[in-house]
Amino acid sequence: MSAILVKGGNKLKGEVSVNGSKYVALAAIPAALLANSQVVLENIPDLSDVRVFCEILEGMGARASFGGGVVTIDPRGLRHAVPNPALVRQLRASYYLLGALLGRFGEAEVALPGGDDIGPRPIDQHVKGLCALGAETKILHGHIKATSVGLKGASVYLDVASVGATINIMLSAVLAEGQTIIVNAYPAPWIIDLANMLNAMGARVYGAGTETIRIQGVKALHGCQHAIIPDQSEAATLMIAATLTGGDVTLQNVIPLHLGSVTAKLRETGAVVLPTEDSIRVIGPQRPSAVNVKTLPYPGFFTDFQAPMSTLLTVAEGTSLVTETIWEDRFRHLEELINMGAKVRFEGRSAYIEGVPKLTGALVRGTDLRAAASLVMAGMVAEGETLVEGIMHMDRGYEKLDQKLRALGADITRQ
Ligand code: EPU
Predict the structure, then answer these.
(1) Which end of the chain is more exposed for a tag (fewer CB within 10 A), N or C?
(2) Which residues lie with the beta carbon below 6 Å from any ligand 1 atom?
(3) CATH, range 22-227
(4) pTM (2 decimals)?
(5) Structural domain boundaries of the chain?
(6) What count of other Cβ atoms lies within 10 Å of the Cβ of residue 224?
(7) Residue 142 Cα, ligand 1 centroid: separation in angstroms?
(8) CATH superfamily, domain at 4-19+230-414
(9) Alpha helices in 174-291 (DSSP H)
(10) Which atom belonging to ligand 1 lies closest to the Cα atom of 327?
């Protein structure tokens, strides 16, 4: 198990390039199974989740290779609809295999997914959508089995705006007969990007990026070449790290429009944020000011930015109120930060953070990918040394984040 040793005190300075979106990559790979010829995906981040996904596809008879930011998938040899359960359990996003395989074979049997420990992660809305399209589902021995005798378009209302359910329903509806309407769909850029990919394969998806998505089923989909958008969460993490250390960092390969909530909040803390068309420069203040943050679906303040942001607020001047409305158990990093001297009081889904002038290094453990990255960031402004365990979580969602931070001047070593 790897850990990261951080010596605090260095300001981040320089230029860094942001990788492709994890969310799109992890949906685009199973989406490729719907094609009848080769799919080439570019700007794919080098994450352990991407590699595991390729292994799952290979195990089902498809050909999948990854290198140099490009995943090439030839789904023609795909033989069966039961992916390797041991591999499936390593990924959260493996639930997309349900929609994709159901669309392709009319059946799928997928082990219930694993992933981060951030509270209960129900998939009832995914199941509701697949059933509305005519699938029958049952859960047996930790697997979910879905079968259909031909999916038919339907109207699906999501009780919660869910990224995963929106994507899963899109994947199962593109080859269904007739029209599917998703009401209260998740309205985000990464849903638009996936719709663009599906449309490049010959699908007819309209309205992605809004709360109502309309999908007109087609008979077959062909291969495509698609370059995915930059990763908002990695960009936000680096922007927050620059602010936290009082640094001066320019991020390349970003779409500033997708980073509106974090840009606004960092400006409130006193950072100077200067966007161009495809880059953002962030200049941190002497000491950030306290701000209140509430996580909401996009374009609100995204839950994945919360851990790095609340880490920054532990050293801000004043008291901040952070409310997490999406995941029940996403304050574990703050519990660890208390061991580093942070002053935090929890009240239900809120945390009151009274900023302290300095954190002190300690042995801490990240329990999910954002928490692990945030603790590394905390170490960068703490007095002395911080050893962060649980780095395998960070590696699931960030490509070589430690190397990027080191190139920007952080004193970081992987153990
Ligand atoms: N929800 C339900 N029922 C469902 C699905 C979701 O009640 O069937 C609830 C969840 O409990 C949660 C809310 O709806 O309260 C939103 O969940 P969503 O379905 O959007 O989450 P997800 O698709 O499982 C993706 C990302 C998460 C990110 C959320 C933000 C992937 C693989 N994961 O998860 O990423 O936090 O969207 O909504 O795309 C991360 O990268 O750190 C991460 C956890």
Answers:
(1) N
(2) 23, 26, 92-93, 116, 118, 121-126, 160, 162-165, 233, 303-304, 326-327, 369-370, 397
(3) 3.65.10.10
(4) 0.96
(5) 4-19+230-414, 22-227
(6) 22
(7) 20
(8) Enolpyruvate transferase domain (3.65.10.10)
(9) 189-200, 232-244, 260-269
(10) 15
